[in-house]
Amino acid sequence: MKNFKTISTADSEQLIAEQQPMILDCRDLKDYRAGHIENAMHVHEQLRDSLLKKADKAKPLLIYCYYGHASEHLAEMFGDFGFQQVYSLAGGYADWKEQHKL
Ligand SMILES: O=S(=O)([O-])[S-]
């Protein structure tokens, strides 16, 4: 069974507004630097490992990548570690950008 959910850009906005999830950007650092969702952290391996061990597993987590594929793998990993509300942004940052006309 899937231990994370995929979420649309519109629903993720609601999630961000209502639940202030931790937001993780798993794209390349240069793309993160060029623009990212507000308050998103760039996940490099070290941060990922420390979050997996230490972050609050009850806090919602929103993960995105370019188009929504890589984030599913990462979301699955967090789900496997017991994080209870893990979301992967469908369409990734590409969709987010398009919806926000960035
Ligand atoms: O970032 S991606 O896996 O969707 S190409």
TrEMBL record:
Which PROSITE patterns does the UniProt entry name for this protein?
RHODANESE_3
Query: Any keyword Transferase?
Result: yes
Write down the InterPro entries for this protein, in alphabetical order: GlpE_sulfurtransferase (IPR050229), Rhodanese-like_dom (IPR001763), Rhodanese-like_dom_sf (IPR036873), Thiosulf_sulfurTrfase (IPR023695)
| GO CC terms | cytoplasm
The residues covered by the Rhodanese domain are: 17-101
Please name the Pfam families in this protein's record. Rhodanese (PF00581)
Q: Do you know which CDD domains this protein is assigned to?
A: GlpE_ST
Q: Which UniProt keywords apply?
A: Transferase
* Annotated SMART domains: RHOD (SM00450)
Q: Recall the GO molecular function terms of this protein's record.
A: thiosulfate-cyanide sulfurtransferase activity
Q: What is this protein called?
A: Sulfurtransferase
